[in-house]
């Protein structure tokens, strides 16, 4: 079973969900400076707000990532989305309006697909890159354990 580390593992591979934003760029640089070997994984969920997702892994390397990959998660997100639609799991009502709550599916797909990619690269330590403003750390950790119980 996985466990939560209380300190950064020096000289070991640490995988991080890397968005290319300030927080994850800083996390990569900090891990490298402290002696860890950061591996960056970026999820392609079909984001419309990114001009060129293919450039993001190279950005991670400029901040100190030993290795960086773009993981195509689009098909898995579509599969999970259809499954959720078939059981009406998306229909949320708030303030009298119905909307599709897709964020939980994106987190599940991101967490499992990135940890699967990490396992392919021999990375068993996960640093999700979130800033602990919400419950993303817990979500990513639980999904990570589903994909690799040793993470």
TrEMBL record:
It holds the Pfam family Arginosuc_synth. GO terms for biological process: argininosuccinate metabolic process; L-arginine biosynthetic process; urea cycle. This is Arginosuccinate synthase-like N-terminal domain-containing protein. Gene3D superfamilies: Argininosuccinate synthetase, chain A, domain 2, HUPs. GO terms for cellular component: cytoplasm. The lineage of its organism: Bacteria, Pseudomonadati, Nitrospinota/Tectimicrobiota group, Candidatus Tectimicrobiota, Candidatus Entotheonellia. Keywords: ATP-binding, Ligase, Nucleotide-binding. PROSITE patterns: ARGININOSUCCIN_SYN_2. Residues 13-141 form the Arginosuccinate synthase-like N-terminal domain. The keyword ATP-binding applies. It comes from Candidatus Entotheonella gemina. GO terms for molecular function: argininosuccinate synthase activity; ATP binding.
């Amino acid at each position: 079973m996985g466990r939560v580390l209380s300190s950064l593992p020096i000289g070991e591979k640490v995988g991080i969900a890397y968005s290319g934003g300030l927080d994850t760029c800083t996390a990569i640089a900090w891990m490298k400076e402290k002696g860890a070997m950061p591996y960056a994984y970026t999820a392609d969920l079909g984001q419309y707000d990114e001009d060129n997702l293919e450039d993001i892994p190279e950005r991670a390397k400029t901040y100190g990532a030993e290795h960086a990959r773009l993981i195509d998660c689009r098909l898995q997100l579509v599969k999970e989305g259809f499954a959720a639609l078939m059981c009406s799991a998306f229909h949320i009502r708030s303030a009298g309006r119905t909307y599709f709550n897709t964020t939980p599916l994106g987190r599940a797909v991101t967490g499992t697909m990135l940890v699967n990619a990490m396992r392919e690269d021999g990375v068993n330590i996960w640093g999700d890159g979130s800033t602990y403003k919400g419950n993303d750390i817990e979500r990513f950790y639980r999904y990570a354990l589903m994909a690799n119980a040793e993470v």
